[in-house]
Amino acid sequence: MTKLIFLGSGSAFTIGANNFQSNMLLVTEENHKLLIDCGTDIRFSLHASDLSYLDITDIYISHLHSDHVGGLEYVAFSTLFDPRCKKPNLYLSKDVASNLWDRTLSGGLKSLDGDIANIDTFFEQHKIDLQGCFTWQEINFELVRVTHVNNGFYLMPSYGLFFTLEGVKIFLSTDTQLCLDKNGEYYEQADIIFHDCETSHYQTPVHANYGQLTTLPARIKNKMWLYGYQPGLLPDAKKDGFCGFVECRQVFEFSSLHRPEFMINFGA
Known about the structure:
Blueprint: E1 2-6, E2 24-27, E3 33-36, H1 42-48, E4 58-60, H2 66-69, H3 72-80, E5 89-93, H4 94-109, E6 111-112, E7 115-116, H5 119-122, E8 124-128, E9 133-136, E10 139-145, E11 159-165, E12 168-172, H6 180-189, E13 192-196, H7 210-213, H8 218-221, E14 224-227, E15 244-245, E16 251-255, E17 258-263
Parallel strand pairs: 3-4, 4-5, 5-8, 12-13, 13-14, 14-15
Antiparallel strand pairs: 1-2, 1-16, 2-3, 6-7, 9-10, 10-11, 11-12, 16-17
């Protein structure tokens, strides 16, 4: 049985101890763990789930916003100076990798006592080709290029994931606008969708918002869980045809014996 644990289900600017940024942990039956994104909240969200950097051996990074990479400095220093730890494996697209050190991590990590570090000091990188995939614990993850931020000159590199657990096809959007013209095949093929959903009254153009998602066909909505939302009162997602909003520390179990269903939250 494999579990997908939402360490948090909130947006980048989630406030309060009752939720954290939308970073996830995939846990196999053998207790191998893949962290999907590593934001600034990660040391708190791990602690709230009775976990720590000691549990982080493998990390996937979707893009370079701080709610997805801001916790890498914590993991890097903690694992480097703890003799119990090996270098964590870091899986990411080549274009994301090309900017991760120089534009995101080097300011805090480059200087060590008596030495100049680079990203290989802290992580074992696994750079993924365009339209590529990676395999972790015999699970194949296809990178799905999503439209998150288009600055008018180029598209910010950002990638969701499409993978299969115990025969269940999963599309995890990470941060994305709703662009069915580009990625509609994944919405159709998936058995379950975990989708970025902005619920703010002051909508931004770089995330799919709840109103847009309500216009999707019922066959798409009835297999879609929503996450990445803002604090505050949430719409009645089930009434509008969705599976619901993912809660902080909600666990989804995948077994060859039955379809996925959520478990009781950790700490409940």
